[in-house]
Design a protein that fits this description.
By secondary structure, the chain is mainly alpha-helical. It has 2 domains: 92 residues, no CATH class; 105 residues, Orthogonal Bundle (Arc Repressor Mutant, subunit A). The radius of gyration is 21 Å and the shape is elongated.
Length: 204
């Protein structure tokens, strides 16, 4: 756990340089839940959501007491966080099959780079038929379904947390064209990207 999101981002960079898999080998959690920073790290960063409104209220109340002449003990005032925004940096799936764990890790790390099943087969020493069967047994899904799932999850994050254009989001999520992304997104979620973004902003 890092003290701030920026420190967690630096930790993710170090893990990438050293070849340490996140989250399979090291789960990384930041603090502050900066939407832009958390969505643009690789993988997207989980972060603690501080209760900034209550913190400000408590600080103002203490200041008012001090200005009124009260003595305030120099003790810590701990404000519980709102919660944790879970993203891929702590999304751990325990898989006993080492080959399939490697396949999941490859998909997690490269789905948004535009990786294909052919790319996955080059990275995992299994035939396509064996990979499909063992992957489904371990996860309940096919490799292709997970490729799409990780890309759609990335699109959701970017729609919710950034003002990027659909063209930019498609590129960041591993889709060749924004039109194809929109079709895949509606097929998986039942909504257009625009409708999803409007709904996400309405919940803020």
């Amino acid at each position: 756990m890092a003290c701030y999101d920026i420190k967690a981002q630096q930790l993710l960079d170090v893990c990438r340089e050293l070849g340490i898999a996140v989250p399979e080998e090291v789960a990384v959690l930041g603090v502050d839940n900066d939407p832009l920073l958390c969505s643009l790290t690789t993988p997207p960063l989980s972060s603690v959501i501080p209760n900034t409104h209550r913190t400000g209220y408590e600080a103002a109340a203490l200041l008012e007491r001090l200005m009124g002449g009260d003595r305030v003990a120099p003790s810590a005032h701990l404000i519980p966080p709102i919660g944790v925004e879970t993203r891929q940096s702590t999304d751990v799936l325990a898989i006993g099959d080492r080959d399939i764990a490697g396949a999941v890790r490859f998909i997690r790390e490269h789905a948004c780079d535009g990786a294909t099943i052919a790319d996955l087969l080059k990275a995992v020493p299994l035939s396509r038929r064996v990979l499909e069967a063992r992957y489904r047994k371990a996860t309940g899904r096919t490799p292709h379904e997970d490729l799409v799932r990780f890309r759609i999850d990335r699109v959701k994050q970017l729609l919710s947390e950034t003002d990027h254009s659909l063209e930019r989001i498609a590129a960041l999520a591993g889709f060749d064209h924004p039109e194809y992304m929109s079709v895949a997104f509606k097929r998986e979620t039942g909504q257009t990207p625009g409708a999803f973004r409007a709904g996400a902003r309405g919940k803020r």
